[in-house]
């Protein structure tokens, strides 16, 4: 279990601390209120998973916009998923208003499968901790960044470089 804080206050993350070399755990998240997605839906592609607490916050907004820009440069063999516990219709509204069209937003609101399996579910808030996972086409984790402070930005350059090494 990774150690984390929100504005300096300790928070509890539920689940394992994954590392490069681990097999990526499966998960079930929502594309919309009725349709789900899992890791296998993106089989054969390099996956950059950008995890955010809520799209309606400044750092999460900037993080998602940055990866949306990067997605256009990474090619068709790469998929960028942004996962949060925002409701699917809130994610769709936000993407429409922000012009986000290359990142796929997925919601872990229903059963927290992603959060629990990837060690990013915040017990006290039922939100996901900001983190980045780069998973190769064979579903092996190649890069992980668990942020220790929720309000910090991830290392965008390192995550993008990890993806570029796989394509």
TrEMBL record:
EC code(s) of this entry: 1.11.1.24
Keywords linked to the UniProt accession: Antioxidant, Disulfide bond, Oxidoreductase, Peroxidase, Redox-active center
GO molecular function, one term: peroxidase activity
Top EC category: oxidoreductase
SUPFAM superfamilies: Thioredoxin-like
InterPro entries listed in its UniProt record: Redoxin (IPR013740), Thioredoxin-like_sf (IPR036249), Thioredoxin_domain (IPR013766), TPX (IPR002065), Tpx_CS (IPR018219), Tpx_Peroxidase_subfamily (IPR050455)
Signal peptide, first to last residue: none
Catalytic activity reported: a hydroperoxide + [thioredoxin]-dithiol = an alcohol + [thioredoxin]-disulfide + H2O
Record-annotated Thioredoxin domain positions: 18-167
Location of the active site: 60
Subunit and interaction comment: Homodimer.
Alphabetized HAMAP family for the sequence: Tpx
Function according to Swiss-Prot or TrEMBL: Thiol-specific peroxidase that catalyzes the reduction of hydrogen peroxide and organic hydroperoxides to water and alcohols, respectively. Plays a role in cell protection against oxidative stress by detoxifying peroxides.
Similarity section: Belongs to the peroxiredoxin family. Tpx subfamily.
Name this protein carries in UniProt: Thiol peroxidase
Lineage summary: Bacteria, Bacillati, Bacillota, Bacilli, Bacillales
């Amino acid at each position: 279990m990774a150690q984390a804080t929100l504005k300096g206050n300790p928070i509890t993350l539920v689940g394992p601390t994954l590392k490069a070399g681990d097999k990526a755990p499966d998960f079930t998240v929502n594309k919309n209120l009725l349709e789900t997605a899992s890791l296998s839906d993106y089989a054969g592609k390099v996956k950059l998973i950008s995890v955010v607490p809520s799209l309606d916050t400044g750092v999460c907004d900037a993080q998602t916009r940055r990866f949306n820009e990067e997605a256009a440069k990474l090619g068709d063999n790469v998929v960028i998923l942004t996962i949060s516990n925002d409701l699917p219709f809130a994610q769709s509204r936000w993407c429409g208003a922000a012009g986000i069209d290359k990142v796929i937003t997925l919601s872990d609101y229903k059963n927290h499968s992603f959060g629990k399996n990837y060690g990013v579910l915040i017990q006290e808030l039922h939100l996901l901790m900001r983190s980045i996972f780069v998973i190769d086409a064979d579903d092996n984790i190649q890069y992980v960044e668990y942020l220790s402070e929720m309000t910090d930005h991830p290392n965008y350059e390192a995550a993008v470089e990890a993806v570029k090494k796989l394509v």
